[in-house]
Write a structure and sequence with these properties.
The protein is α/β, with parallel strands linked by helices. 41% of the residues lie in helices and 14% in strands. An 8-stranded parallel beta sheet has the order 3-4-5-6-7-8-9-10. Helix 2 packs across helix 3, helix 3 runs parallel beside helix 4 and helix 4 crosses helix 5 (124-139).
């Protein structure tokens, strides 16, 4: 499936597969292992995890056991949102590297601009301190690319103004009806790839009648249309499932939505 083998190119020239397999909320152990193995067997070559998910060890084991060359699989993980100091960032990276046991990380992200228990609070100074560690890791070749997650325009501006390396990616919540236009536009203007997590709005889009009408035209599912929409907007989707059939279905998106249907989805408030 070309959608699984096609790549975006980050601003530093690193190729990243256009669809990633998300592992948020998948428990460590057999569930993560089996899901990742299923995704890899289905052709996914981009796996997204995080220290906060608690499943890095199972992700790493699934990748090692897959028989697929390490250089053919793109691995993203994330520094915990609560870490806002240099020592904490170094420790978090070391721990993720040990748990994954896959060598250099392909993409390392700051998980959020603020701790999850203090959303919206100002941690710009801490983010800059952490980012400078990220720059060191990148320069040392311990990670092939560095980025952020859940950063809005003000967060991005403060970081870019105070540091050397512009983030290569910004992973944000992005789906039909919730497209974060300001953050998306700013990121694209600065050659920052936008990755969209929860492309199905954590399953809420699946019952959407308007998307279902569009999907029927193409003989596709609501999930497939929702994921295809991101790709046509040059957003990297990160669908997540533990059901083998849905894991495969979410990658079967080698079709083209018409400009009219894209416009209809643009106009659809299917979000919150």
């Amino acid at each position: 499936m070309p959608a699984l083998t096609d790549t975006f190119t980050l601003s530093n020239g690193v190729a990243i597969p256009k669809i990633g397999f998300g592992t948020w909320q998948i428990p460590d152990g057999n569930e993560t292992y089996d899901s990742v193995r299923t995704a890899l067997d289905a052709g996914y070559r981009h796996i997204d995890t995080a220290r906060a998910y608690g499943n890095e060890a199972s992700v790493g084991r699934a990748v090692r056991d897959s028989g697929i060359a390490r250089e053919d699989i793109f691995i993203t993980t994330k520094c915990p949102a609560e870490v806002k100091d240099a020592d904490g960032a170094r420790h978090a990276f070391q721990r993720s590297t040990e748990l994954l046991d896959l060598g250099p990380i392909d993409l390392y992200l700051i998980h959020a601009p603020w701790p999850w228990n203090a959303i919206g609070t100002d941690h710009r100074a801490g983010n800059i301190e952490v980012w400078k560690v990220f720059e060191e890791l990148y320069e040392q070749g311990l990670t092939r690319a560095i980025g952020v997650s859940n950063f809005e325009v003000a967060d991005l501006e403060s970081l870019v103004d105070a540091t050397e390396v512009v983030p290569h990616a910004n992973q944000i919540r992005w789906f039909v009806g919730n497209t974060q236009p300001e953050t998306t536009a700013w990121s694209k203007e600065h050659d920052i790839l936008v990755e969209g997590y929860s492309p199905l709005a954590t399953g809420r889009l699946l019952d959407n009648e308007e998307i279902a009408e569009i999907a029927q035209k193409y003989g596709k599912s609501v999930a497939q249309v929702s994921i295809r929409y991101l790709l046509q907007k040059d957003i990297l989707p990160l669908p997540k499932s533990t059901t083998p059939e849905r894991i495969r279905e979410n990658a079967d998106v080698d079709f083209e939505l018409s400009p009219e249907d894209v416009a209809a989805l643009d106009a659809l408030d299917a979000g919150e």
